[in-house]
Design brief:
By secondary structure, the protein is α+β, with helices and mostly antiparallel strands. The protein contains six helices and 20 strands. Helices cover 16% and strands 37% of the residues.
Length: 309
Amino acid sequence: MNQKFLVIDPEKDLAAIKGVSSLPRIKLLKELSKRPGININDLAQAANLPQSSVSTHLQVLEKAGLVRVEVQKARKGNQKICFAVYDELIVSFQSKAEELSSDLIEVSMPLGLYTNNAVTAPCGICSTEGIIGLLDVPETFMDPERMRTSLLWFTSGFVEYQFPNNAKLRGDSIEAIEIVMEVSSEVPGTLANWPSDIVVSINGHEVGVWTSPGDFGDRRGTYTPDWWKLKGSQYGMLKTWSVTDAGTYVDGLRISDVNASNLALDDHRSIRVRVEVKAEGKHPGGLNIFGKGFGNYDQDLLLRLKTRR
C-alpha cells in the first residue's frame, strides 16, 4: 500500500496546524493510523477518551482534511467509521516542502468545468448561492453558469473533465496518478443504505468501480450552505482513486489490475477523467459530487501526478 504524506506549510495550512495542536487529537490520529476503519465507540475506548470529546475532536480533524468519517450500516441502525487520510504529516518552514513534493504535481479542477456530459434525471447543479438552471433537465448541465457549480447530481450517465498534463509540459514521466473527490450515491431525499457503483475512467480506460454505500443526510455537511434544505444530500465520502504500476486502488484497497502504463499518460497533453454511473450496473444508485462550498471537504476535484525525471 502506498504511504500518503502531507507537507504542511505553517503559514497557509492553519486548519491542519489547529488539527494537530491538541494532544487528544494527536492521540486519535495515532490510533487511526494503527486501526483504520474503527468506529467511534471503539476509538474512544482505545484512546481512553469520552465519546463526546472524541466526536468534537473528530469534527476538527475532519474539517482540516486529516480524517474522514463514513456512515456504515450496523446491526442496529448506522455507525460512524473513522479513517486517517494521511500516514505522515510533515511541517516545513523553508524550502523543504518544495523539495519533498518536487515529484508531485497537483491540479484542482472546479466542479463545473467538465468538458463533456450525458446525464439522466433526476439531476441538477447548484452553486453556493442557489440552483443553476432547471432541476431534472439534463440540458441544464450545459448552462454557461455551470462554471459556478459546487454540487452536481444525476441518476445515471457521466461527467468528464480534461486536466492539463503538466508533467509532459515539464518533461517528466508519470509513474502514478490519483483522483480525489467527495462523492455519494443519489436518491430523492437521502438514504444511508442506497448503494451505487461509481466508475472512474482515465483517458478512455475504465480503471475500476467503487460502490458508494449511500446518500447521506443525517446532518448538515460541514460546508453545505444554510439555504440548502436538510432533506437534500448533505455530504459524501472523500475517496482517492490511485493508479500505480501495481494496479488501481481506492483508499489503498486494490480494485483492479489496470496500471499506469495502460493509460498512456505520457503520450497526451491532457488527461481525461470520467466519473460515471451506468444504468445497467449492478447498483445504479446515482451520484453526487461535492465541490468547494458543499459537503465536508472544501475542495474541488484533485488530480495528483507522481513523476520521475
